[in-house]
Design goal:
The chain is mainly alpha-helical and 137 residues long. It contains four helices and no strands. Helix 1 runs antiparallel to helix 2.
């Protein structure tokens, strides 16, 4: 079973405050690029599914988690903080579920994790659209 991420890249063009929006913008772009690169390498049979899981686990999730901690600790306006926190959590949950599915011993064991991945990925995409509407331009 294969999953494809449709990435919505959110533009944050602020240089103000403590730099949380700049860190978000750079971190999100870097993590989405690393995820998509690993997914494409697996699609070209350059890496197998376990190597894809390892790439997500080592190249994507640690950077995302670090960025998330910094951004969530920043003093963001409430209208921005809510959608931002939801997006960060849902994208992370999607990737973690995908890794769990890839590590499952068989398709039946992977099915719940794939279902969670697809649900959280869709939620993250919806969060990204809501976030884009409130991000400073």
């Amino acid at each position: 079973m294969r999953a494809v991420l449709v990435a919505i890249v959110v533009c944050a063009c602020s240089r103000g405050g403590d730099g949380a929006l700049d860190e978000f913008h750079a971190g999100e772009r870097r993590c989405l690029a690393a995820f998509n690169d690993a997914l494409h390498r697996q699609g070209r049979n350059e890496i197998d599914e376990l190597e894809l899981a390892d790439a997500i686990d080592h190249d994507v999730l640690p950077a995302w988690r670090t960025m998330r901690v910094h951004v969530e600790a920043a003093a963001l306006p409430p209208d921005l903080a809510g959608p931002m926190h939801a997006y960060l959590a849902d994208r992370q949950a999607a990737w973690e579920a995908y890794v769990a599915a890839l590590h499952a011993p068989n398709d039946a064991a992977a099915a719940p994790s794939y279902a969670l991945y697809h649900r959280k990925d869709a939620e993250a995409d919806a969060d990204a659209r809501r976030l884009a509407a409130v991000l400073p331009r």
